[in-house]
Amino acid sequence: MPTLEGWTLWLHIGAGTVAVLAGVGALVTNKGGWRHRQAGKLFVISMGVVVATVFGLLVFNPTTFRIILTLVAIFSGYFAFSGYRVLSRKRPGDDADTIDWVATGAVFVACLGLGVWGGIWYLGGQSFGIVMIVFGTIGVVFATLDAWTFRRDGTDEWMVSHLQRMIAAFISTVSAVSAVNLTPILGIWAWLWPTIIGVPLIVYWSNVYSTE
Question: Which of 56, 132, 171, 176 is the most exposed place for a label (fewest CB within 10 A)?
Answer without folding.
Answer: 56
